[in-house]
UniProtKB/TrEMBL annotation:
Superkingdom assignment: Eukaryota
Iron-sulfur listed as a keyword: no
SUPFAM superfamilies associated with the record: Heat shock protein 70kD (HSP70), C-terminal subdomain
Full protein name: Heat shock protein 4L
Protein family (similarity comment): Belongs to the heat shock protein 70 family.
One GO location term (cellular component): cytosol
Keywords: ATP-binding, Nucleotide-binding, Stress response
Molecular functions (GO terms): ATP binding; ATP-dependent protein folding chaperone
Organism: Stegodyphus mimosarum
UniProt keyword annotation of Transcription regulation present: no
Amino acid sequence: MPKVPQLSDSELKTFIESEQRMIHQDRCEERRINAKNSVEEYVYEMRDHLSNQLKPYTDEQECNDFKHKLGYVENWIYEDGENQNEAVYEEKLSELKSMAEPILRRKYECEHRTPAIEEFHNLISEAQNILSSYLSPDSPYSHIDPRDMEMVQKLVDEKLKWLQQQMESLKELKTHENPPILTEHINAEKEKLKQAIYPIFNKRKPKAENPNTKCQ
């Protein structure tokens, strides 16, 4: 039986280092290819979206500029960009996404702004109904300090005025235009009002004193 040659420590170390370099190179190449494919896929995907679901949210000039950029990047991938490193592909993808971001934001705003306004209106209506019933003899809120309810009334009036102003500024807004107020700001104002009035509305009514516990 032939004797298997043994590697010296230095030869074994060299072999392991070589294997590790190859593994690292394979991983780098895999990431590079994935990054390149991501750019290519984004080009095709966004070109399709611009002609379909994103079309209402961009004007002609912006759409044409973006399509031109997509075409430029597509040609670049098969020419000068054929064998670039991972970082270069990531930079190209970032450039494309930065052009898409305003369009995607308008789409998001158009889809979420109306529900946000409705939720804010519902909160204001709820508060107004409670304020209206406050002076009724059988009101479940009659135990609340009048000064607290006056503060609630002031806050509700302020938020209603603010919301009406925002709605007025949005009245003539086109879907391809940037909104003067964002959904996140509407939600933030709604949360401020909620956090201010709910602790007051949720104050527990003091327990009635049990006459049987009085000293005789």
